[in-house]
Amino acid sequence: VQVVESGGGLVQPGGSLRLSCVASGFAATRYVISWYRQAPGKERELAALITSPGGETTYADSAKGRFTISRDQSKNTVYLQMNSLKPDETAVYYCKLDRWLGATGPFVHWGQGTQVNVSP
């Protein structure tokens, strides 16, 4: 199983960034892909998630209205579009895969993270 994030970088306050998460090499009857972030000195926190099948989405209160999580199943990719970014959203952003095989699970897989810096 591979979970690989990309798309991080430096963006100015108020700017936008789109992160990508490619999850591959796994079997599942259902799964959830989540984006978490961890700022320096803080705990890792959920930003958004999307389910499969179904495609239901959930957002942290801080992300609602500014972040959009979406998926392209043909590319095994989940995206996190982030708009109106703030300096305190500087963090390492991680992609997490939770998968189930029937009633067994979850099996949890994390990516290595991608750094997002929001700064003038």
Task: Describe this protein with a few key phrases.
about 120 residues; mainly beta; seven-stranded mixed beta sheet; four-stranded antiparallel beta sheet; 11 strands; about 60% strand
Strand percentage, roughly? over 45%
Annotation, overall tally of beta strands: 11
Provide the residue-averaged pLDDT.
97
Specify the biggest β-sheet: 7 strands, mixed
Q: Total number of helical segments?
A: 0
Radius of gyration: 14 Å
- The H-and-E topology, N to C, reads as EEEEEEEEEEE
**Helix vs. strand class:** mainly beta
What does this molecule look like?
The protein is mostly beta strands. The N and C termini lie far apart (37 Å). Strand 9 (91-101) and strand 10 form a beta hairpin. The mean pLDDT is 97. It has strands at residues 2-6, 9-11, 17-24, 30-38, 45-52, 57-59, 67-72, 77-82, 91-101, 104-110, 114-118.
